[in-house]
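Q: Here's a chain of 408 amino acids. Please give me its 3D structure as tokens.
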Amino acid sequence: MKRIYFLIPIIIVLLVLLYLLLAAKEKKADGEFTTTEVKRGNISIIVTATGTLDAVTTVLVGSQVSGIISALYADFNDQVKKGQILAQLDPTFLQAQVAQSEADLEKTKASVDKAQKDYERSLSLFEKKMISEADKEAASTSLDLAKADEKSSRSTLDRAKTNLNYATIYSPIDGVVISRDVDVGQTVAASMSTPTLFTIANNLSQMQVDASIDEADIGNIKDGQVASFTVDAYPDSTFQGTVKQVRLSPVIVQNVVTYDVIISVSNPNMLLKPGMTANVTIIVDHRENVLKVASSALRFKPNIQAGSSTGTARASGRNRSGSASTDSRGHRQLTMNSGGHNSKTIWILTTNGKVQPVPVQTGISDGGSTQIISDNIKEGDKVIIGQKNLQSSSNNQQQVNPFMPGRH
């Protein structure tokens, strides 16, 4: 009998240990949660693209006449002024054309003088009735033809002189020579198209980026938006610009549609050069000092056993400014509220270790973080982003697995 009384305390201790073990096992079966805190900070929505740096105004200087380059007066990187001589074509052939045209003009002038005298003589004879009216009209016609030949010869001379002037190539604008495409002694032919001799950029202190924006993002791009970009030449530097123009013409390459967006860039230190590849980031929307959570918290759905208090709270949770409902599977249906914000549910871990659903309104998102507009959570709250050891979830998946035989 005394031995039985001695075993009673031991049995009680064993029962307590067994209860604690079962309680710990049940808690572990429900899963351990990974949390993160609600924070305040800035959120920006960005669009990324690549583009090419160019001068705002670039002029291709060509030649309207054919000939041999006899002299060059400008080279790469030279600063030039409007009207400055850049190159000279050999004028020998063009000067010969001018001389020929001048001689032809003199001949037509002489023909006009002779036709004028013949007409005056015919007119005098006609008045004395010594020639017929037909002879007088023939003399008048010869005079008109001679005058027309004179005009044609004068026009040919003017054209020959103009071509001779074209043999001297002048700069059309103030700027810098970024390309010289000819050398002395090279023959340029302007019969079918105008050959390019020089490329002149007007002002490299003001440049632009021609960025290609995908059609999925072009709807978010507006004039005046802030853009930043980097170039491979200066990987540690970030340059700033402003969206100047969204061009309407699509660019289609292998069924991929993009649109050109022009970004105005200041280049006071002349670090940027035409042709550089720019890695562009355009800020579409930006919010400062807002409440935000990890976007993964909005996608999280806890594994909750049916009939639990947390599950009941989840099914009945509502947002004052939005709406939410559950479907036949118990999944939450998200709707858009009147303010244009998404109504969603996040799950927080309270100080006493309970899981609680909180309906919230969300604003903009940069992918990693999402703005929270509702006031039913505060900075420092722990939101759940993951759940470990989902043993009960595995059992539930086995029950609804269509490939497993059903139970009868």
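Q: Can you summarize the key feature?
A: Helices lie at 2-30, 92-127, 133-166, 296-299, 309-316, 391-400.
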